[in-house]
Each structure stands twice: as C-alpha cells, then as structure tokens.
Amino acid sequence: MAEYTIHLDGLVAEIGLGIHDHERAAPQRVELNVAMRCVYDVPPHDAIDAVVDYDYLRTGILALAAKGHIELQETLCDAVAALALSADPRVAEVRVRSMKLDVYLDARVGCEVVRARGNADAAR
Q: In Å, how far are 16, 38, 65, 92 from 20, measured between CA atoms?
C-alpha cells in the first residue's frame, strides 16, 4: 500500500458567501486549500491514469463558486470535501480550508473540515 497527499493550495475564487447584506450584494474573494490523502495498492507508475487527477477538483470548485450564494463557510467546505471524495475511491481523506480574504484589513477568516471516506455522506 502506498499513500500520497495531493495538495491544491491557494485557489482564489470569487464566491457569493456570507450571511451579511454586504456579502450577499457581491461575491468576495475566497481562498481554498485542499489536501487529499490518496491510497494506492502499489506506488503509482509515472502516468496520470495511475494517480488521482486533481483537475476535477479545481474545475468542480470553480463550478461550485459560480453556482450561487452560499451562507456559511462550513457549507462551502463540506461541499468541496464531498466533491473531493466523490470522484475517485482512492481518495481516503480530505482536508478543506476556506479563507475569506477581504473581511478584515488585518486578518483572514476561515473554516477547516476533515472528512474521510467512511463519513463522506455526513459531508453532503
């Protein structure tokens, strides 16, 4: 058995996110960081079909951002975690962190969730 962690870090998307009127008025910049723990029967050979291809994750996150307003960062993180776990059974666990970049001048505000294949349904 071979385990690897695939990272998608620093993806910044314009997302309608938040409960306040000013957050509902326009999308805001949100940074997403995702780590997927992938388990393979053997160390993968040097070909894309041997590993989890992260393109689906980036594409799916951007589609989610364009879909419509989301109230809570917790909901956003759960949706990204469900996406990460849904596409490939070799993804055993996912860690998702969202950060609102422009809420405060001196800080970012975020949420982080960890979901494993066994509790993927709880993330939906």
A: 11, 37, 18, 35
Tokens of 53: 């291809």
pLDDT digits (tens, 9 = 90+) for 100-121: 999 899 999 999 999 999 754 4
pTM over 0.85: yes
> In this structure, what token pair is assigned to residue 42?
């053997």
User: Residue holding tokens 């860690």?
Assistant: 95
Inter-axis angle of helices 73-86 and 55-67, to 10 degrees? 140
Domain residues for the domain of 52 are 2-123
> Which CATH number covers residue 63?
3.30.1130.10
For residue 87, the 8-state DSSP code is S
d(CA 2, CA 43): 5
Number of separate domains in the chain = 1
Amino acid at 118: G
Backbone dihedral angles phi then psi of residue 99, each to the nearest 5 degrees? -140, 120
